[in-house]
Specification:
single chain, 7 helices, four-stranded antiparallel beta sheet, 221 residues, 37% helix, five-stranded antiparallel beta sheet, 9 strands, alpha+beta
Length: 221
C-alpha cells in the first residue's frame, strides 16, 4: 500500500505540471480523435472487474460531477460504470469457468477509496486494497491475461488499483488540475470485495457496450 501511495504521489507531481499549461488546438484535436476511436458502445475487451457499492459510487460520481462543472465536455462515467479493473483477460472459450475456479480459491478483501489523481487520459480515484487479496487474485488470473498492453504496462496494472471517473475529450486546463488537486487527499469510504464480475465491454464499461458473462463469488472465509 505504501508503495502505491508513493507511486500515485509521484504521478500527481508529474501530471499536474504537465497538464497545467495553455491548450493547443493541435493537441485538442488529437485528444478528441483518440476519444472518438475508443469504440464506446462497441465491446472489444474481456475483463474481470469489481463494481463498488452504490454509496461509494455515488460519492465518486458527485466528485466527478463537480470537476465536470469546472471544464464541461469530457466523458463523465455514470455511477453504474465506475469500477475497479482486476485484470484484462484473453477472449477464449471456457474463460467463465476458469475465472470461477480462480475466484473460488480467493478470499474476500477490503478496498479503501482514496483521493483523485490524473493520468494522460483520465481523472481517477486511487484505490488501496487491504492486505494481499487483490494481488493474489490477479496472480491467480495471470495465465488468462490479455497481452493487449505491453510488458511494463501489464506489470504496473497488476500492482495498482484505480477507478476512472472522467475520460478526456480534449486537453484539460489549469482550473481542472487545481480542482483535482483539492481532492487529492479526500476519502470516499471503503468496501469489501466478495465477487468478481466477468464482462465483455468497451473502453468505458458503458451500459450499452457491456455484457456480463459471469459473476464469480470469492471464497468465503
Amino acid at each position: 500500500m505504501n508503495a502505491a501511495r508513493i507511486a500515485y504521489g509521484a504521478n500527481w507531481v508529474f501530471m499536474s505540471r504537465r497538464r497545467g499549461s495553455t491548450l493547443f488546438p493541435r493537441s485538442a484535436a488529437k485528444t478528441r480523435r483518440r476519444f472518438a476511436e475508443s469504440g464506446i458502445g462497441e465491446p472489444h475487451y474481456v475483463t474481470a472487474v469489481v463494481r463498488p457499492p452504490q454509496g461509494v459510487a455515488e460519492r465518486l460520481f458527485e466528485a466527478a460531477s463537480r470537476l465536470d462543472g469546472t471544464q464541461p465536455g469530457h466523458y463523465l462515467y455514470p455511477r453504474e460504470s465506475i469500477h475497479l479493473t482486476v485484470l484484462g483477460l484473453a477472449d477464449r472459450v471456457g474463460i467463465e469457468e476458469e475465472v470461477r475456479d480462480v475466484a473460488k480459491g480467493s478470499l474476500p478483501f477490503g478496498v479503501e477509496v482514496g483521493g483523485l489523481n490524473l493520468s494522460a487520459e483520465t481523472v481517477f480515484a486511487e484505490l488501496y486494497p487491504v492486505g494481499s487479496g487483490l494481488l493474489e487474485l490477479r496472480e491467480g488470473l495471470r495465465s488468462l491475461e490479455s497481452h493487449e498492453h505491453g510488458t511494463i504496462s501489464r506489470w504496473i496494472r497488476r500492482r495498482i488499483a484505480h477507478a476512472n471517473l472522467i475520460r478526456f475529450r480534449a486537453p484539460i486546463d489549469a482550473g481542472m488540475v487545481a480542482e483535482v488537486g483539492r481532492m487529492r487527499r479526500a476519502s470516499f469510504g471503503e468496501f469489501e470485495v466478495e465477487e468478481v464480475e466477468l464482462v465483455h465491454t468497451d473502453k468505458v464499461m458503458s451500459s450499452e457496450g457491456t455484457r456480463t458473462l459471469a459473476r464469480c463469488p470469492l471464497q468465503l472465509g
